[in-house]
Amino acid sequence: MEKISASEVKCYHCGSDCPEEAIALGEKNFCCLGCRTVYEILEKNNLGHYYAFTAAPGAQQKKSHLKKKFEYLDDSGTAGRLIDLTDGTVSTVTFYIPFMHCSSCIWLLENLYKFNAGVQYSRVNFLQKKITIRYTETIISLRGVAELLATIGYEPEISLQATEEGNKKTQDRSIYYKTGIAGFCFGNIMLLSFPEYLSIVNNVDLFLKGFFSYIILTLSLPVFFYCSSGYFTSAFRALKKKMINIDFPISLGIIALFGRSVFEILAHSGVGYMDSLSGLVFFLLLGRLFQEKTYNVLSFDRNYKSYFPAYAVIKKEEGEASVPLSALKEGDRILIRNNELIPADSVLIRGRANIDYSFVSGESVPVEIAEGEIIHAGGRQKGTALELEVIKKTSQSYITQLWNSSDFVKPDENKIITFSNLAGKYFTAVILLIASGAGLYWLQAGIAEALKVFTSVLIIACPCALALSVPFTLGSTLRIFGRNKFYLKNASVVEKLSGIDHVVFDKTGTLTKLNERNIRFYGADLSEEEKEVIKSVLYNSIHPLSRSILKLMPEVRLWGIEEFMEYPGRGLEGIVQGQKARLGSVSFVIGTEAGIPSGSSSTVYVSINDEIKGFFRATNIYRDGIKELASYLQTYEISVLSGDFDGEKETLRDLFGSKAKIHFRQSPFDKLSHIKKLQMKNCSTLMIGDGLNDAGALMKSDVGISISEEAVNFSPACDAILEAGEFSRLADFLKFSRTSMKIIYMNLVISLLYNIAGISFAINNNLTPVISAILMPLSSITVVALATLSTNLMAKIKGLR
Amino acid sequence: MWVLVILMFFSLLVALIFLGAFIWAVKSGQYDDKYTPSVRILLDDELKINTDQKRKEK
């Protein structure tokens, strides 16, 4: 090992500064043994050119405590739930790897087989940050695979959800199959029907005519029995609940089309309407495909189990052991390291707890907790390792209890009366009335004629135009919102948004910014010299509050520091220019809390030479454009729920006016019951929140929107995710959802006009396959074109991208 | 007219082959991840030679 001066040397692997005693290997220097090991592994396996992709690819890599971390994967039950597929010797597993961030990550992860002979193959899904690995059980275990990934810097994140419920979520591809097959059949049936349209075959060859119609019949079988099966089952399921949805009249139309066509073909009385049938089903499926735009990267159904780790490290007499979270009992001693999540409500036994509850409450300033006090599950330790004693199981903990509440259920999707289902109900009634009326009238010409008219009405009145306008309009809206960084779970959320009349805001983290604070100094006027002292001490700390205070005094001169001590979670102490300064919490600076007004965690007291100068207090900054948003939302009723004290009541009143309901000190349960109360009063509620403490309210409300600084990161179960930067445009989105509904109404009128035209043919017993083959695709195409074009045009007019 | 029947048969056969290809593509997961393959194709297995040359040039 050679000695190189510290400042110039950067680690070859991770790019951070090397310590004075840099660890060298050949010409290359490393900051730590870990980085060198990774380099050696890479080089040994002929993967050294990894470094050619990016300089210092190992940057930001967390040092992990690998020894025991994945021990719980040896448990066959846990492993069994994680593994996708196994035949005893060869297994396939999918891991979520949050650190995956660039193309060289894909490259390295897909070359995993070069590190270990047990790995047969690995495939990355970059957008989902997932890797699928096939490996040989006899050479490497599941734990081994996880550890291998961790050693090269891609530690898999295994959530509680994955280990408890398994992650075998196979993608449903049937919509692709159905659309493909329907398209195939539609094209060929159209081609074979052309002679009939042009009436060429009439006097040519009866044999050929029969031949064509039998091919058509064969081709229509998969369309009827496979491609349209979704509509039958949906209609049937609704019927069982004594409801009629839009799929019912569609199914009726499809059955009428198919039944009559089969009869005509077999009786040699005509060629039937199979072209109309297959075209209709194809268009309907296209609509469904269009509507099913999903954001792969985002997840809308996460609960606490997706965030909590799958294991906890228990301290036992014989040492440490990692156990699955479900096996954690009251009384267990657990170890929590820096940046780890507290898995269950526990009491602090040893260590300095500095807990970041931003996950739970949206408040990002860490809270200091003394030994013997309770730490709630969901907090994240920032600082040194802790020893805790569990007092409640994970599922019984304060925040996770929310999920056990009987109110914690989304209203049944089938019970929600959507516009298309409502329309479907009336449609069915009217159509059946007209069809039977016309049928009765034609009864005088014989039963055959009457049946013909009856089916003709059902065929032509099939509300396919309506059934198409809804998915295409809502699907386009979903895409437009997505371009504007407002991601919806599915298209039906648009419709629900349009019906909202009460908007509920969470305060911390939603109305206020998460990581920015407004800082003011309260106390005696500081002299220039004192400011210099304070700045010089703060300069040495990386605590978020220190960094924020520093921004207050950019022009103050900086001195070198003589003695500096940082007490994690408590404060700083340093000597600058012979002056001793202490900055930090009340107890740290003053020594006692007596006589001091409530010192919250966001208050930093200052003393210089043991004389108290005053304190810095950080208050939340409201997001930009809230004022405008509030004035736009005047037509809505508004509630603001805050977990905080009522310190900012006046500010909120100013923003939202005197009518708004503003509640403080709201627990997660209070928020949930507030929504419930509103719903009892028949309000359609929109909840906007961000943390796990809003999870109940987000779930219960008609639409729950989760605000996220980065959409990929964290969001509790919700209907939509809104990127924080676009928060002020919420009113635009609400308005546009109403515009979309208007477009649907407009399309309804157009499709009704087509239907009236069609029905007039049908009741006169004039419906020929040619008319049907022209009218039905024509109405579908007009509606689809109108729906997509007008939605996109309106979006442009309304200023959405 | 028999020629029409034969033509019909062949055209359907060709169309079925394409349908089969489509179903195979869906089944093999080509519609599941539409992004990663676009990156993967740019990653070069032969990169090692290039970087060695670069180092020699230095």
Characterize the structure shown:
The complex is a heterodimer of chains A (801) and B (58). With 801 residues, chain A is α+β, with helices and mostly antiparallel strands. Helix content of chain A is 43%, strand content 18%. In chain A, strands 16-28-27-26-17-24-25 form a 7-stranded mixed β-sheet, with helices on both faces. Chain A has a 6-stranded antiparallel β-sheet with strand order 8-7-9-15-10-13, with no helix packed on it. In chain A, strands 18-23-22-21-20-19 form a 6-stranded antiparallel β-sheet. In chain A, α8 packs antiparallel against α9 and α12 packs parallel to α28. Chain A is globular, with a radius of gyration of 33 Å. The two termini of chain A are 58 Å apart. The N terminus of chain A is likely disordered. Chain B is mainly alpha-helical and 58 residues long. Chain B contains 3 helices and no strands. Chains A and B meet through α2, α5, α8 and α9 of A and α1, α2 and α3 of B.
Q: What is the ordering of alpha helices and beta strands of chain B?
A: HHH
| Total beta strands of chain B | 0
Largest sheet composition of chain B: none
Indicate the low-confidence ranges of chain A by residue numbers. Answer: 1-7, 59-64, 594-601
Category by helix and strand content of chain A: alpha+beta
**What kind of oligomer do you see?**
heterodimer
Output the strand order for the largest sheet of chain A.
Answer: 16-28-27-26-17-24-25
Strand content of chain B: under 5%
Mean pLDDT of chain B: 76
Biggest sheet details of chain A: 7 strands, mixed
Helix content of chain A: 40-55%
Note the overall shape of chain A.
globular
The DSSP helix count of chain A reads 28
Overall pLDDT of chain A: 80
Radius of gyration of chain A, in angstroms, nearest whole number: 33 Å
**Proportion of residues in extended strands of chain A:** 15-25%
What share of residues of chain B is helical? Answer: over 70%
Q: Quick summary of this structure?
A:
The complex is a heterodimer of chains A (801) and B (58). With 801 residues, chain A is an alpha+beta fold.
